[in-house]
Amino acid sequence: MSNNNNQLNIPQAREAMDKFKMQAASEVGVNLKQGYNGDLTSREAGSVGGQMVKNITTVRLPKNISFERTNRIVDGHKITVRYIAGISI
Fold first, then answer.
1. To bridge 82 with a disulfide, which of 10, 23, 66, 68 should be the other Cys (CB 3.0-4.6 Å)?
2. CA 30 to CA 56: how far, in whole Å?
């Protein structure tokens, strides 16, 4: 059994996450307000969350990088994955 409780126990962390969420919302054009935002569509809420993940997990890889990974569909096979896009920060 997992002992995960997705609560932020430090008040400053809650403030920082709220600020981060508001910034992400403004970047994707979603009008968030303080408190309850139950009037958002699933698409709007998902775009805010997606923008937060995008900002938090920026991958810093050189252009045109390739690597092999296990094929997720066929056991015992490998597939070559190639990233061609560059990331600028």
1. 66
2. 19
